[in-house]
Each structure stands twice: as C-alpha cells, then as structure tokens.
Specification:
The chain is of the alpha/beta class and about 350 residues long. The protein has two domains: about 140 residues, Rossmann fold (3-Layer(aba) Sandwich); about 190 residues, Dihydrodipicolinate Reductase, domain 2 (2-Layer Sandwich), CATH 3.30.360.10. Helix content is about 30%, strand content about 25%. Strands 3-4-2-1-5-6-7 form a seven-stranded mixed sheet, sandwiched between helices. The longest helix has 17 residues. The radius of gyration is 20 Å and the shape is globular. The mean pLDDT is about 95.
C-alpha cells in the first residue's frame, strides 16, 4: 500500500465545505497539506480546530493534488472560474456544483455505482446532485439486477441543501413561532417552518414545467446509469427538516423483481442499509439518517399500478453522502485505482 500523501484544497467553507474538512479527518485521508480557499481570507473554527482560509485565486491552486469545490457559501460558479484553471495546474478537481455535471468531458460519479467512469476523467470529476445520489444508491443495485425502465420520485428535502442561511432561517422561524412573534422569510419565497414548498431550483426550459432540481434527477440518472432510455418524473419538495433528504420512489423494471429479492440485493450493497419492518415501526427516518454515511431504504413493497413495479422509501444525509462524503470517496477511489 502506498504511503503517498496529498496536498488537498477545499473551495468554499459553507455547510458542505465544512463537512468536507470533517470527512477528510474522520476517514484519515492521506493529507500532507490542507488548503481552504474562499472569497476572503480569515480564520474559521471547524470541528473544534481553527483553520486558516485563504482568498481564492488561480495561483492559490499551485502545488495541490486535489481540489474539492464545495459549491456553497455563495460559491455557485466557483468551478466555472477556477476549475479548469486548476486542472491546467495539474490539480485533480472534484466539483460538488452543477456547472459541469452534464459536460461530456466530465465523469459524473457515485463510487459505489459507476466507479469505472472515473477512468475517463480529463482532470475534472463531478459529484451528482444530492437527491440523485440518495436515489441511485438504492436504485443502482436494483438496476443492475432487473433494468430500470422508469421511476417516479417525490423528494422531501432538508433545508441544509440550501445552505447555512436556510438552516438559520428554519431555527429562527421555529423560535419566533414558539414566542408568538411574526415569522420572517428570506432564504425561501415562503415560510418553511411547518410548511412544504414544492419548488426547488428554477424552471427548466429543457423540461417545461419542471424545476432544475427535478430535471437533474432525469439527466443525471441517465448519465450515471449509462441509459438514455430511462424515464423519470420527479417532484422535489423542501420540508422543515435540518438534515437528510427523503424520497418516495415508484420504479418499474424490465424484469420481475420482488420485495424479498430487492431486500437481499440492497442488504448486500455497499453504503446501503435496509430498515424495513413496518409492524415494528422500523423504516428510514431523516432524523436518524442525519450525520450518517449510509443511505437507508425501507417500505419496500410491490407497486401494483404497473407490471414489474416496486415502491420504496429512501433517506440519506444530503451533506454527507449527498455531497462531502461522495466527493472524498471519489478521491479515495482514484488513489485506489492508481489514477492519482
């Protein structure tokens, strides 16, 4: 086993960037240097340690082996500005943002699902959207077994997917409600506390009537699973939960796949845990998935409305597996495959 250590950069130190620092530490990633970049120079406390943040510029990437773009702290588009410039400086870029996910030059990777796609990289690899990752951690193994024709998904997404400001807004609205004060909203177009907003992202011209979050689930699924015939209809809803996205999925397969067989497949899938005993009140819950690395699957049952159909409920921490962890796992997989 190689003892090589790597110079690692993180761009953006919002919710995802902070989690990336934690994940790198927890997994004992072989780091020689950790360099955190953001819009301004300052010190930040992360997991009890003070980290010096340097101002992002092209030269700040010099000497790095990996650069993780967190896509947070207003850093939307940071990879557009610095991503390929970093690649020119021999840095492997792993981008959590959506700027290059559908770029033909850029592999879109969930390491447990399509690791071989990494081999095609040209210096930049993209993290899929958090909702896509949560769904495909369950659907990927089932697709290999029976072939997905289509799925309909309704997501119930936590506010941490929007960032720190949304987390604070939910906290403040709950406190205001308890104190009998007016509830103020800025992060969302409506109050999020005690509410559900069926609107995540902007309207997508390429998919009339659908939002960008919903369109991602179609286009990213097809790219990751390597099948442009898969049909997807998504409705993405923001709910007043701090961490972890939940998804109700109805999927139709080419071949018959029963609930018991699905449980066996998912029980053996890396990064997946099956919690499925309704009689004992055992099923995936966002409260229990928060802070966990695995994706949880339950309520596995036949979908009686179609032939070869299953219904399931999937929950995963959008900041962990849906973002920071998946990015670090891509780098780990590259090291394992001797591509870095």
């Amino acid at each position: 086993m190689s003892n090589k250590k790597y110079r690692v950069g993180i761009v953006g130190i919002g919710a995802v960037g902070t989690e990336m620092v934690k994940v790198l530490r927890e997994r004992a990633f072989p780091i020689e240097e950790l360099r955190v970049l953001a819009r301004s120079e300052r010190d930040e406390e992360i997991a009890g340690q003070t980290v010096h943040v340097v101002a992002a510029c092209n030269e700040a990437f010099d000497g790095l082996d990996f650069a993780f773009f967190a896509g947070t702290e207003g850093a939307k588009g940071a990879s557009q500005r610095y991503g390929w410039e970093a690649v020119k400086r021999d840095v492997i870029v792993i981008d959590n943002g959506d700027d290059f996910r559908m770029d033909d030059r850029v592999p879109l990777v969930i390491p447990e699902i399509n690791p071989d796609a990494i081999k095609q990289h040209q210096g930049l690899i993209a993290n899929p959207n958090c909702s896509t990752i949560v769904a495909l951690m369950a659907l990927g193994p089932l697709h290999r077994a029976a072939g997905i024709l289509r799925f309909v998904v309704s997501t119930y997404q936590s506010v941490s997917g929007t960032g720190r400001a949304a987390i604070r807004e939910l906290e403040e609205q709950v406190q205001a409600y308890a104190a009998g004060r007016p509830l103020v909203h800025k992060a969302y177009p409506h109050q999020i506390a005690f509410n559900a907003l069926p609107h995540i992202g902007s309207l997508k011209d390429a998919l009339p009537g659908y939002t960008s979050e919903e369109a991602k689930m179609l286009f990213e699924t097809r790219k990751i699973l390597g099948s442009h015939a898969i049909r997807v209809s998504a409705t993405c809803v923001r709910i007043p939960v701090f961490y972890a996205h939940s998804e109700a999925i109805n999927v139709q397969f080419e071949k018959k796949l029963g609930p018991e067989q699905a449980r066996e497949i998912l029980g053996a899938a890396p990064g997946v845990q099956v919690i499925d005993d309704v009689s004992a009140n055992a099923y995936p819950l966002p409260l229990e998935a928060a802070g966990k690395d695995d994706v949880f699957v339950g309520r596995i049952r036949p979908d009686l409305s179609v032939q070869n159909g299953l219904a399931l409920f999937v929950v995963g921490d959008n900041i962990r597996k849906g973002a920071a962890l998946n990015a670090v796992q891509i780098a780990e997989k590259m090291i394992e495959m001797k591509l870095a």
